[in-house]
Amino acid sequence: MAKPATAVDPQTTFTPAELSQSFQQYRTELIVMPMLAMQAALQHMTARTGIRYQQHVHEMKGNFEIGPYNKYKMGDGAVAIVQRTLETFFGNCIEPIDPNSIVQSLWGSDVTKGEALKNVPWVKRVCAYIMAQLGEKLFMEMWTAKRNASGTTTHDLFNGFLAIEDVEIAADKMSQEEGNFYLLPEAFDGDNTEELLKDWFFGVGSWKGIGPKLRSQKLKLFMSDRTKHFYEESYQKNHGSLPYNQQYQKASLEGAPNVEFVPLANVPDNYLSLTPRTNILSLWNQRGQDETFLVEKSLTSHYDLDFIANLFYGEQYLSINKEMLNVVRFYTAVTTTTGKNPKSEGWYVKSGSKYVQTADTTPQSGTTYYTL
């Protein structure tokens, strides 16, 4: 009986020399595999390359306007120059691999499939799979990562968007008064999400609303995929009988077609980030010899190979001004703290009207902890 066309021969083997040579041969293609694995998010962001450690950008702020003629009128001429730091963090990965087990699992991977999978050498497919795995881990930590130089995981490599926002919130640079940060009054669900989103955006009720400069741009609204589901559920409950309501899926905010929904599995529930694509940055180096990708014969096993990868990665908002960014959060009280490390869990405590990340390593009696 003929073997199915998609079957993988379990006896397929590769030598360290073959894999190492393939890495070098396809290095230009393979180096972008982590980015390709993150495309669900990166297609809605701006990716900057050539960032090795730090690069500084500047933004000018001032309040100037023209009014009726008055020969004695004199402004203060105050121009503020705000610096933001674009930073990538250097990370590495050294892992023993069994290439044959990877080959056997490739058919279940979303990294490469179909005709594209059949038309490349097996060694290249193995390399692409490994590189894409790095990208998938980066993708899942894009919001939740927090830099810990002594850590060992992707979560510890860089500061995700939540950590970046936490610094600005603690410094009072993101707040309701600044017009770039709001707190949700209640968690999203299948009944309230459409109303909450529209009231927040247009400034209904107690909401201050989105400023006209930000509101008038072509915007990306980053949210959990669950939040988008809740929006569609509540929309159908509110408008299910309208003649123009012809489909369940909603790609933008009702009444604001310039606000494109970006539902992602790596974004926390009850969280929103509204910004133009040009303002939310994914930072890479991808230049020079610092970023090394090698496969060599294992130093510890006759059957394994060692996969070695070095790369730079980071994230940042180009501007946090209300004209470019608005973030919404809802903090939920933690109900079970026994045996937990509040700091490593990324929990918050309330300080006045703000929620700040706790430094407690053990739960403190009488303290209420919160999570996103």
How are the elements arranged and paired?
Layout: H1 16-25, H2 27-30, H3 33-37, H4 39-42, E1 46-48, E2 54-62, E3 79-87, E4 89-97, H5 99-105, H6 114-118, H7 122-140, H8 154-157, H9 161-170, E5 181-183, H10 193-202, H11 212-215, E6 219-224, H12 225-239, E7 252-253, E8 256-264, E9 271-275, E10 280-284, E11 293-297, E12 305-317, E13 326-329, E14 332-333, H13 342-345, E15 348-351, E16 354-357, E17 370-371
Parallel strand pairs: 1-10, 5-13, 6-8
Antiparallel strand pairs: 2-3, 4-12, 6-9, 7-8, 9-13, 10-12, 11-12, 14-17, 15-16
Helix pairs in contact: 1-7, 10-12
Quick take:
It contains 13 helices and 17 strands.
What does this 3D model show about the protein?
The chain has 372 residues and is an alpha+beta fold. The strands form five sheets. Strands 5-13-9-6-8-7 form a six-stranded mixed beta sheet. Mean pLDDT is 81; it is low at 1-12 and 106-120. Strand 7 and strand 8 form a beta hairpin. It has 13 helices and 17 strands.
| Main sheet properties | 6 strands, mixed
Fraction in helix: 25-40%
Structural class: alpha+beta
Low-confidence stretches: 1-12, 106-120
The end-to-end span amounts to 55 Å
Element string (H = helix, E = strand):
HHHHEEEEHHHHHEHHEHEEEEEEEEHEEE
Which strand order do you get reading across the main beta sheet?
A: 5-13-9-6-8-7
- Count of helices? 13
Shape: globular
Task: Output the radius of gyration.
Answer: 25 Å
Average of per-residue pLDDT values: 81
Strand portion, in percent? 25-35%
- Could you tell me the number of beta strands? 17
